[in-house]
Design a protein that fits this description.
Layout: H1 3-19, E1 44-47, E2 52-56, E3 84-88, E4 93-97, E5 107-110, E6 116-119, E7 129-132, E8 141-143, E9 155-158, E10 164-167, E11 175-178, H2 191-195, E12 209-211, E13 217-219, E14 226-228, E15 236-239
Parallel strand pairs: 13-15
Antiparallel strand pairs: 1-2, 2-3, 3-4, 5-6, 6-7, 7-8, 9-10, 10-11, 12-13, 14-15
The protein binds 2-acetamido-2-deoxy-beta-D-glucopyranose (3 copies).
Amino acid sequence: MTSTLLYHHLLLSVILLLHAPLCPAAAGGSWSVLLPSIGISAMHMQLLPNDRVVMYDRTDFGISNISLPNGKCRPNSTDCSAHSVEYDVGSNTIRPLMVLTNVWCSSGTLMPDGSLVQTGGWADGYRRVRIYKSCATCDWQEISNGLNQQRWYATNHLLPDGRQIIIGGRQAFNYEFYPKMSATENSPSFPFLVQTNDPNVENNLYPFVFLYPDGNLTKLSRPTRQCPAGNQGTTRALALRYYSL
Ligand SMILES: *[C@@H]1O[C@H](CO)[C@@H](O)[C@H](O)[C@H]1NC(C)=O
Ligand SMILES: *[C@@H]1O[C@H](CO)[C@@H](O)[C@H](O)[C@H]1NC(C)=O
Ligand SMILES: *[C@@H]1O[C@H](CO)[C@@H](O)[C@H](O)[C@H]1NC(C)=O
């Protein structure tokens, strides 16, 4: 399919989406407050397959309003408040979690086993891979240099092979995968991110990325070029439209 056709196909999808009723009247939905506070600001949140919602906030903005359990504090820190919580939809309760590094404007996606793999962030979080696999007592696991590159405002997408691709981020004009196939797997450059980066504006952060049923990846950006995005010959990135924050 050419980019023009694909663009029209996407455009049509967007138009159809716009014409779909946002909230079907028949459902009679309504909002209600379930808890007065969850203790943190939910800068990021992810619904998990077991009806829990994991939420997390930056760690460098002072203490939160919920303490870590059992007098725990973050290592090398006087901050003993939690910057992540898990909400249990069934019991309407919150459980504080300990995220170790700064998740400010990080990114992530669910893996096939239902764990959340969450990457990058700010400062001590730049190259982190964090894994949260929900259970009654589980907490975040962090891998220090799990990413090859520092990533702040990157985009993650699950691929058909069960790995995730992690694309871009501030001054990271490349992409990589998690988990890696080998210790030497590198981060191929993605020149399109350079070409769509306006100096001092940083308007290609958090790129919109979609996976097609045929295994192709689409990054929404200017209709300019197609370039390979996989190291197995099965994944291709198609640059379509520019997204600006
Ligand atoms: C959370 O905020 C409430 C209301 O301001 C306060 O009473 C409570 O002590 C705070 N809890 C923590 C752990 O900061
Ligand atoms: C705590 O600080 C020490 C000394 O700087 C360092 O060796 C250690 O890795 C730090 N621990 C963590 C979890 O950051
Ligand atoms: C997906 O990639 C394959 C292989 O490059 C290509 O033949 C096909 O046209 C692509 N599909 C779309 C929708 O771009």
